Amino acid sequence: MKRTLRWMLTILLTVTAAGVVQAQSQLERDLADLRTWMKQRSSQADSTIAAEWPTVKKEFKELTYSLDGNTRKLSEKSRSEYNGYKEQYAAWQQRHESELVDLDGRELERWEREMTGTTTIKSIKPVHLRDAFTRALEYTRGYRQDWSLRDWAYAEFVMGELNSRKADVLDLLSAGDKIRIAALQVEFTTLQKSRQAKDAYEDRRKERR
Q: According to the UniProt entry, where is the signal peptide (predicted)?
């Protein structure tokens, strides 16, 4: 009887130990996937990160889902590495998530309609998303020279909605649409930064007077 109990206990401990090792191995694989993703994203231009921020945010959340709840199971070295990635992501988040602006609801709907042709951007079908981005950029190119900072706030909000919609339906977009939309996202960010640079220049001129 005692021999049987010892045998069962040995099996139980062996299975438990194997389970722990397997869990640790999976976490290390998850960390390796995150490491690869961070290297890839870190090599991209800041404007690309900004243009694809909703997608970046979604990818990071998916890659860290299992790691967040099991950090204590990581080795000290791996835990330190993971915390470093979280700090780097937090810096990205602070840089790319602009402060919320108190926008008028009716005016926002007008901007949505003018820029995309609809006020329900979250319902745009994947096959029509490229056209919505194209229209938004054409509108931006045509009117940006006369926009105030508040106008830019509305335009940025609408583009943020489009970016979020892209992140939601990314797997349903064709390769061609993904490439074209990414180019349009980068262009909008470039135009936005151009305005910011112009404002900074004007501010410096005023200071010198």
A: 1-23
Distance in angstroms (rounded) separating the CA atoms of residues 123 and 107: 20
pTM above 0.85, yes or no: no
Long-range contacts of range 101-108, CB-CB < 8 Å, 24 or more positions apart?
A: 101/150, 101/153, 101/157, 103/153, 103/154, 103/157, 107/154, 108/154, 108/157, 108/158
Cα–Cα distance, 35 to 72 (Å, whole number): 18
pLDDT in tens, 115-168: 999 999 999 999 999 999 999 999 999 999 999 988 998 998 899 899 889 988
Instruction: State both tokens at 98.
Output: 């602009």
Dihedral pair phi/psi, residue 42, rounded to 5°: -65, -25
Residue 166, classified by CB atoms within 10 Å of its CB into exposed (0-12), middle (13-18) or buried (19+), is buried
Dist. CA 184–CA 190, nearest whole Å: 10
